[in-house]
Each structure stands twice: as structure tokens, then as C-alpha cells.
Amino acid sequence: MKTPTCKADSIAILGEYKNKLTTEQYRNIERVIGHQAIEEMFLNRSEIDRAVRTETGMITYKEAMAEILSKRAS
Q1: CA distance 36 to 74
Q2: Virtual CA dihedral for 37, 52, 55, 44, nearest 10 degrees?
Q3: Which of 27, 44, 51, 74 is the most buried (most CB within 10 A)?
């Protein structure tokens, strides 16, 4: 899938993870997508993957922030 250009694109990517998330986890990430979309910022696949890993406890918030900062530094 190409870079998301609208909220629906980001939600479609999130939908690929639906079977790995509880309803509450899914809705939490969906809310984040919605809040970002208000600012015309649409989460891409790697950002959604990071959100899923954070929400499911695979990585901590601190580790997620370290990933973001290392991407920005490169």
C-alpha cells in the first residue's frame, strides 16, 4: 500500500492487525489515528506497527520513542 493520504488509508492498515488486538487495543490505536488525522497527519505502516507493538506490550513506550528518535536522526 502507498503512503496514506487520508484517515481511511491508515484505518485500512490497522485493519490488518485486527486479529492480533483486543477490541480495546484496536479502538485505542484507532483513536490515535483519528486525532492525527485532524491535523492532516496520517499514520503509515511503520507507525501503526509501532503502535500495535506498544499497545500489546511487545515494546515499551520508551523503546517506541527511541525508535522514533533514531529514525529522525538518520
Answers
A1: 23
A2: -30
A3: 51
Residue carrying C-alpha cell 485532524: 38
Spatial neighbors of 6 by CB under 8 A, at least 6 apart, are 37, 42
Q: Return the closest-CA partner of residue 42 out of 51, 33, 50.
A: 33
By the 8 A CB rule, do 29 and 7 touch? no
The residue ranges of every structural domain in the chain are 7-73
pLDDT value for 7: 97
Strands (E), 1-74: none
Angle formed by the axes of helices 23-38 and 45-55, nearest 10°: 140
Q: Show the cell assigned to 55.
A: 499497545
pLDDT along the chain (74 residues), means of 10: 88 96 98 96 96 97 95 82
